[in-house]
């Protein structure tokens, strides 16, 4: 493979990292290594994030371990609630998680570079004598930390989750030993190639020059090859100088062709027209898969935390006399405290405004079986595993009362939309593909 094409393929996720980091770094007082909490659920008025999750509150931090380690303090979280502190390198690999799925508890955890402690990257349990509940060993100097906490459907619960989000803190602590190259701290200069370039391919190469030296590949066996190819492509000593005759535009177009081909042939088929990227969340040497996720949904989690199946139907549209029905053969199998949802987005990836202020349907939506009994929330029904349906039709075409709870309102103007299925804390059966994914059918509008 041409060295420039390889470098673009390897480095493309850094563009997404820079998009996230720029608001933390380009400040009069930078907020690197500081949690920035998002204390309200997403609404159609918010267009900063594409395809926002309306199930959880978030808190985000851009991480920089160039000089210090970081103590991550996690407050108490009540039982049977999904929560997760997800740690990422700049390329979007979810290399460690602390949360309900992994049966972690509140307390203090030390985030440090794996090079400095001589341990493998990932989560490491503490022996209890060092004052920490555990260690997060980062494979890179820079990265990000994204907190997700489930919100149930009432205002008091939102207030509770806000207190959890705001009670989470990061504190710098001096590092005893630095082994290997830790790089310079994040600064305006680090992201200058992103800020000053409208050309994505050039920005990627400039970001690689700044970030690659202190943020090596996950696979140590890849390090020599990756740095050799970067140097051949003109990346050396923190600078990018294109070799003679290099056409970045052509190389970037070739990369996009490769990504499009992979979507067609490289995804795992789940049945009923559903597919998923594989591997998910941590990609090792699969740089193509990593690129696709960076473009479509940077910072996805590993599959035991959440599954993100995609429908091959892609973007859809409905007239006022049409509907789409999602038929679930049974309740999605998630662990205790887990949850699932179907969320509606317009063609730009933002929530669809509607008179009901309803943007998702899931296990907290009082959905019902065809006989009117609740799918969730009634102890006598908990063991029932019958089929149920979710109705998608324009928000100005009201269905009969027995469909109201199962109705996901779509645009009323015939414009395009997409529906995203999310499954958090999936069971092993769901991960292995032993559950039948919902069947999607189009028909006439359902009216009284």
Describe the fold and architecture.
- The protein has 448 residues and is of the alpha+beta class.
- Among the domains are: 31-174, Immunoglobulin-like (Sandwich), CATH 2.60.40; 313-444, Jelly Rolls (Sandwich).
- It is 22% helix and 28% strand.
- It has ten helices and 23 strands.
- It has helices at 3-11, 13-25, 114-117, 155-166, 192-195, 200-211, 223-232, 248-265, 287-297, 428-432; strands spanning 36-38, 56-64, 68-74, 83-88, 94-99, 107-113, 122-125, 134-138, 142-150, 169-174, 235-236, 239-240, 268-271, 274-276, 306-307, 310-311, 322-328, 334-346, 360-362, 388-394, 407-410, 417-426, 439-444.
- The strands form six sheets. The protein has a five-stranded antiparallel sheet with strand order 1-2-9-4-5, with helices on both faces. The protein has a five-stranded mixed sheet with strand order 7-8-6-3-10. Strands 15-22-18-19 form a four-stranded antiparallel sheet.
- Helix 8 packs across helix 9 (287-297).
- Residues 315-427 form the DUF1214 domain.
Which features would summarize this protein structure in a list?
DUF1214_C_sf; Jelly Rolls; Immunoglobulin-like; 448 residues; five-stranded mixed β-sheet
Question: What percent of the residues sit in helical stretches (DSSP H or I)?
Answer: 10-25%
What is the CATH topology classification name of the domain at 31-174? Answer: Immunoglobulin-like
What structural category characterises the helix and strand content?
alpha+beta
Number of separate strands: 23
CATH superfamily of the domain at 31-174: Domain of unknown function DUF1254
The span between the termini is 60 Å
Helix count equals 10
Q: Give the overall pLDDT as a whole number.
A: 94
- Shape-level CATH architecture of the domain at 31-174: Sandwich
Overall radius of gyration = 23 Å
Q: Report the CATH C-level class of the domain at 31-174.
A: Mainly Beta
Oligomer: single chain
Unreliable stretches covering 5 or more consecutive residues: none
Largest sheet: 5 strands, antiparallel
Shape: globular
Domain DUF1254: 32-170
Organism: Oidiodendron maius (strain Zn)
InterPro entries: DUF1214, DUF1214_C_sf, DUF1254, DUF1254_sf
Protein name: DUF1254 domain-containing protein
């Amino acid at each position: 493979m041409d060295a420039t094409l390889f470098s673009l393929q390897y480095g493309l996720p850094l563009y997404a990292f820079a998009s996230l980091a720029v608001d933390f770094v380009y400040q009069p007082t930078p907020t690197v290594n500081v949690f920035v909490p998002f204390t309200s659920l997403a609404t159609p008025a918010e267009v900063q994030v594409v395809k926002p999750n309306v199930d959880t509150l978030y808190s985000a931090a851009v991480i920089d371990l160039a000089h210090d380690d970081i103590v991550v303090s996690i407050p108490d979280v009540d039982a049977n609630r999904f929560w997760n502190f997800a740690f990422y390198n700049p390329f979007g690999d979810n290399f460690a998680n602390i949360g309900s799925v992994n049966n972690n508890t509140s307390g203090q955890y030390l985030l440090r570079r794996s090079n400095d402690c001589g341990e493998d990257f990932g989560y490491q349990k503490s022996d209890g004598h060092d004052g920490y509940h555990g260690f997060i060993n980062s494979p890179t100097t820079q990265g990000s930390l994204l907190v997700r906490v489930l919100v149930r459907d009432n205002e008091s619960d939102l207030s509770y989750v806000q207190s959890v989000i705001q009670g989470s803190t990061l504190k710098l602590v001096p590092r005893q030993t630095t082994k290997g190259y830790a790089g310079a701290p994040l600064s305006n200069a680090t992201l200058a190639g992103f800020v000053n370039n409208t050309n994505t391919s050039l920005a990627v190469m400039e970001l690689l020059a700044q970030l690659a030296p202190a943020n090596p590949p996950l696979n140590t066996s890849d390090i020599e090859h990756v740095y050799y190819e970067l140097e051949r492509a003109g990346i050396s000593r923190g600078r990018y100088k294109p070799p003679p005759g290099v056409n970045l535009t052509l190389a970037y177009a070739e990369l996009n062709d490769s990504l499009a081909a992979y979507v067609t042939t490289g995804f795992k088929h789940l049945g009923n027209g559903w597919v998923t990227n594989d591997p998910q969340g941590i990609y090792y040497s699969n740089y193509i898969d990593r690129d696709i996720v960076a473009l479509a949904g940077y910072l996805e989690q590993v599959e035991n935390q959440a599954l993100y199946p995609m429908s091959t139907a892609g973007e859809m549209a409905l007239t006022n006399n049409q509907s789409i029905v999602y038929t679930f053969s049974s309740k999605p199998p998630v662990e205790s405290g887990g949850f699932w949802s179907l969320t509606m987005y317009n063609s730009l990836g933002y929530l669809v405004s509607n008179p009901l202020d309803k943007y998702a349907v899931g296990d907290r939506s009082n959905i019902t079986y065809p006989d009117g009994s609740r799918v969730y929330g009634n102890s006598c029904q908990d063991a029932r595993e019958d089929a149920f349906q979710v109705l998608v039709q324009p928000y100005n075409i009201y269905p009969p009362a027995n469909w109201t709870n199962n109705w996901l309102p779509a645009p009323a103007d015939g414009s395009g939309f997409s529906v995203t299925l999310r499954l958090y804390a999936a069971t092993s059966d769901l991960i292995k593909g032993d559950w039948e994914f919902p069947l999607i059918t189009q028909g006439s509008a359902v009216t009284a």
